[in-house]
Write a structure and sequence with these properties.
With 413 residues, the protein is α/β, with parallel strands linked by helices. Helices cover 40% and strands 13% of the residues. The radius of gyration is 26 Å and the shape is elongated.
Length: 413
């Protein structure tokens, strides 16, 4: 059983002559806000899904985050491009009625309210399942839907705190904790939620059944730390951050103050590294002859490699490292990263045209697919811009739309 072609006329068509994307024909009703949920549905939009973003009359909180005078918010654009916006005041009965008319036309409903909010509104999973038996309903939260913390609110930073990662990234248990980059738990949780939704779409096509998907920030953080948590559960030891866990799997400062990263973690790579940096004395040193010796004598090897790399500027190291096939890279900031051709060649960075913000450089889809290529479908939507169009697509007449405006249930752009 499949619904992939049930409402293709409402989907943004691919460029002329281009193949459809993987989720073209899938319609997603998106109640998410902030970061974890919106980035999950952005990934679905890149894959071709029509994502209808449901927002309160003033817009979701992300629109105001870092908003500049020209109306650009990197927070909102980074998590909502390629979507359509409908503005509903869910506290008014007419708005909830709209949702109930939309659900049967949708394949997926996604929300990241606290557990119980959608149920109190009368549009939780069981409510939606009565409207469409095979609906896929995805819930994202901070702590998961079960257990003593289920009803608590939470955001990325406090989820990182509970997950153990702050001590792993910091000085270890008893030391100073250090958070990861802001939004890390959100982004990992979002990717796993999108993975769950895509898996559920496959199951529904195969078996004809919908289901409720439950993702959380701390669930994503456990998955992200799989190796480290596995080590702790076996040994009872958490090591914490080490500036250099291995002398040949780290980065070194060069003569010009820039840094080069190396990943020579196998014996043949170590030997090629010595050749690349013209250090036969290290290659022949018995202390560093094998991986165990390099580990036991890590500090001495770090000191030796540090002295070598500081003798030349970064540019002088890149060619010999490449010629000797040593895994390496210059350590770049965002300016250097965004200028590097590798990102543009693979579509990881792209430039798009927008109707209200002009040309805009954006992150592109993180994967490529040869037969059903993902695409950036546009900028973040203008608040409420698609409200009337979406209502018309589910049978509302113009006089009904005007009545909904008068009641405050909807607000158009």
């Amino acid at each position: 059983m499949t619904t992939l072609d049930t409402h293709a006329d409402t989907i943004i068509p691919p460029p002329d002559g281009a193949p459809a994307s993987a989720l073209t024909g899938v319609r997603v009703l998106d109640f998410t806000r902030a970061q974890q949920g919106p980035f999950a549905t952005l990934l679905l939009a890149d894959m071709g899904a029509e994502v209808i973003k449901v927002e309160p009359p003033g817009g979701e909180m992300g629109r105001a985050s870092g908003l500049n005078p020209e109306g650009f918010s990197s927070y909102f654009e980074g998590h909502n491009r390629g979507k359509r916006s409908i503005t509903l005041d869910l506290k008014r009965p007419g708005a909830v009625d709209i949702v109930r008319r939309l659900v049967p036309t949708c394949d997926v409903v996604v929300e990241n309210f606290r557990p119980g909010v959608m149920e109190r509104l009368g549009i939780g999973y069981e409510d939606c399942r009565r409207l469409r038996a095979d609906i896929i309903f995805a819930s994202a939260s901070a702590w998961g839907r079960h257990g003593p913390w289920a009803a608590r609110g939470g955001y990325d930073h406090v989820a990182q705190a509970l997950s153990g990662v702050m001590y792993e990234q910091g000085e270890g248990p008893g030391g100073e904790p250090q958070a990861l980059i802001g939004g890390f738990a959100d982004q990992v949780g979002a990717m796993l939620l999108a993975f769950g939704i895509a898996s559920a779409l496959y199951v529904r096509q195969r078996d004809g059944v919908g289901q409720h998907i439950d993702g959380s920030l701390i669930g994503g953080m456990v998955a992200m730390q799989s190796k480290q948590i596995m080590e702790f559960l076996r040994s009872g030891v958490q090591r914490g951050f080490q500036r250099r866990r291995a002398a040949t799997y780290t980065n070194y400062a060069c003569a010009d103050g820039r840094h080069v990263a190396i990943a020579a973690n196998a014996q043949d790579m170590w030997e090629r590294l010595c050749d690349a940096i013209d250090a036969p004395q290290l290659k022949s040193d018995a202390r560093f002859a094998d991986p165990f010796g390099r580990d036991r004598n890590k500090d001495a090897l770090v000191e030796a490699l540090d002295a070598v790399f500081r003798t030349r500027p970064l540019a002088d190291w890149l060619e010999p490292l490449e010629r000797h096939d040593v895994p390496h890279a210059p350590v770049l900031d965002y300016a250097g990263m965004s200028a590097h051709p590798q990102y543009w060649a693979n579509g990881y960075l792209q430039e798009i045209e927008t109707p209200h913000l002009g040309p805009m450089r954006v992150p592109g889809p993180p994967i490529r697919m040869s037969a059903t290529p993902p695409r950036v479908q546009g900028s973040g939507p203008i608040l409420g811009f698609h409200t009337e169009e979406i209502l018309r697509s589910v049978g509302y007449e113009w006089d009904e739309i005007e009545a909904l405006k008068d009641s405050g249930a909807i607000r158009t752009a």
